[in-house]
Design brief:
Layout lengths: L42 H8 L1 E5 L8 E3 L2 E3 L1 H13 L2 E5 L4 H9 L5 E7 L2 H4 L2 E3 L4 E3 L1 E6 L17 E3 L3 H10 L8 E3 L4 H9 L6 E4 H7 L6 E6 L4 E8 L5 H15 L2 H10 L7 H13 L1 H15 L3 H12 L19 H7 L7 H18 L8 H12 L1 H13 L7 H7 L6 H4 L10 H22 L2 H5 L11
Parallel strand pairs: 1-4, 1-5, 9-10
Antiparallel strand pairs: 2-3, 5-13, 6-13, 7-13, 8-11, 8-12
Length: 483
Amino acid sequence: MYLQRFFIILLFLFASACDAPQQGDPATDKTVEKPPNVSFINQLDRVKKTGILTVLTRYDPTTYYEAADGFTGLEHDLVQLFAQHLGVKAKFIIPDTFTQILQQTQSGKADFAAAGISVTEERKKQLLFSPPYHKIREQVIYRSGTKRPKNISDLSNGIIELVQGTSHIETLEQLQKSNPQLQWLTNNELDTDGLLYLINARLIDYTIADSNQITLIRRFYPKLNVAFDIGPPRHLAWAFQKSTDTSLYVEANLFFQKIKKNKTLKQLLERHYGHTRHIKYVGHCTFRLHFESRLPEFQYLFEQASEKYAIDWRILAAISYQESHWNKSAVSPTGVKGLMMLTQATANQLKVKDRTKPKDSIFGGALYLKQRIKKIPKRIQEPDRTWLALASYNIGFGHLEDARIITQKLGKNPDKWIDVKQALPLLTKKQWYSQTKHGYARGKEPVLYVDNIRSYIDLLLWYTSHKDIEESTAMPSLTLDNI
């Protein structure tokens, strides 16, 4: 359900004063009370006084969505950091359409909008924009199995549909001046995610998506492809109402300066996009087929283990898929077996009776991960805590600690996965592993291992909770042709 709209209205009452009487005039010579001073509370002070930062956003994998451990998304995480910077709580408002986000920002119905908004010259006439936090490109999207459009003229050979109110329409309006045959439809109900689904279902031919959107959403619709970039790079930024009161806007600028300087912004971008580049088309297709054909047999066991060990079942299922592709009979050349591919030594340590039995394997793997998480220093926050634990699940805690020491020697943060993942591959180089306690290790493997699991978690979240469009549009039967 969409959040209810939150209206903030500031009313200032000003008293008008009469002209002061002339001194010595007997008819009017009397004491006149001065009107009380009316103190002006600027937007920044009001936010701090109320303790609430109200922000417009939208549901999208690039902005705001529900993940395994609560709400997340790049915009969500940036806003939460800004709220923490101000010492207040963030409240998100989700309007029905993108157009409403822009309209409500202009009218001051919230403190600002953090919704993956592209900065354009037209929008700069209506809104104030924070410093940019991400560079993207607008890209024409089509489905494999259809003819790829190579230029603007080719778009006239099919149906192109765009989300109403987006910068993509501004782009096409400019291109239409030199390409009068260019025509398109606008949709005021679906977002870009929805239009991408329509392309995947072969209901329309083309749309335009920002490169960050297609990077994430293409994992769920692997037959979607980028035809070409349709314009120069654009920047994403927060949007504020144009007003004489720029106190909150100025503070946001200072905030972005801070997180760029201390590399927090870089870490956030890696958190949300750094794991998306490894699994290719065939991998996504295979995952979806196994999601339908294999996972249902074991999902209840993942859920039971989740309840017992307080780990989201989709994390456990993602580990199992990485290990065995949910094949209970899986056996590796080195002798690890079962859904979670436990070694005999690990099974003995966990007191797992039969690692080939699905329940024993899943519960054993969940316990093993729980132990890994507990060994990570308590000061390390999520999600880095889980990513580091997963790396140790793959490579061992000793080698992980060696990599964290190398990370520190490199002048980086050993408590951040973005830095440790760069140090792990150095365990294959003698100049580095010779300095460590546990020696050589195949350090590239845990990096790929964690990134794959993160992608599988995203896919599981999508397939188990992203139901809006699928419930309103008949879902095609799952075959290799339509995934």
